[in-house]
């Protein structure tokens, strides 16, 4: 008997009842597929949550001192104008100035915000 393409689910059911797959009569049921086993590996985090990281800014010639001070005060909570000026002066005189020390996620966020404002910055493990 040639199998015809069913037009509806009920036709498919009737065809399967009349000529079950597998030949020898018997009940028609759903096939169970086994999922391939995937070995679980525990990836070690790149950063240790207990470690602290320093955020540095670097001297550049394209931003004014007042701009750097204003960005530091906007980006870093509780940054005073005096502290921002000290950091900016250290970067200007020595090439880099340490902004602060935080856990990785916070340090990364501040570094990204500084970079978005155009300030060259980096994170260094404390």
Task: Characterise this structure.
With 126 residues, the protein is of the alpha+beta class. The protein has helices spanning 9-18, 65-75, 81-94, 104-116; strands at residues 52-58, 96-103, 121-125. Strands 2-1-3 form a three-stranded antiparallel β-sheet. Helix 2 crosses helix 3 (81-94). The termini are far apart. The model has no long low-confidence stretch (mean pLDDT 83).
Shape: elongated
Any idea what the radius of gyration is? 33 Å
* Number of helices, where a helix is a run of at least 4 consecutive DSSP H or I residues: 4
User: Quick one: biggest sheet?
Assistant: 3 strands, antiparallel
Quickly give the structural class. Answer: alpha+beta
Q: Give the helices and strands as they follow along the chain.
A: HEHHEHE
Overall mean confidence score, pLDDT: 83
**How much strand content do the residues show?**
15-25%
Low-confidence stretches: none
Q: Portion of residues in helices?
A: 25-40%
End-to-end gap: 78 Å
Sequence of strands across the biggest β-sheet: 2-1-3
Number of strands: 3
Brief summary:
The chain has 126 residues and is α+β, with helices and mostly antiparallel strands. The chain has helices at residues 9-18, 65-75, 81-94, 104-116; strands at 52-58, 96-103, 121-125. A 3-stranded antiparallel beta sheet has the order 2-1-3.
């Amino acid at each position: 008997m040639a199998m015809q393409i069913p037009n509806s689910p009920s036709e498919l059911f009737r065809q399967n009842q009349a000529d079950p797959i597998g030949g020898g009569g018997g009940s028609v049921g759903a096939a169970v597929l086994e999922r391939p086993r995937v070995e679980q590996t525990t990836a070690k985090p790149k950063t240790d949550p207990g470690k602290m990281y320093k955020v540095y800014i670097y001297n550049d010639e394209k931003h004014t001192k007042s701009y750097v001070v204003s960005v530091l005060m906007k980006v870093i909570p509780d940054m005073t104008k005096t502290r921002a000026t000290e950091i900016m002066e250290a970067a200007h005189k020595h090439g880099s100035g340490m902004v602060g020390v935080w856990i990785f996620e916070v340090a990364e966020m501040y570094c990204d915000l500084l970079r978005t404002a155009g300030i060259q910055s980096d994170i260094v493990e404390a």
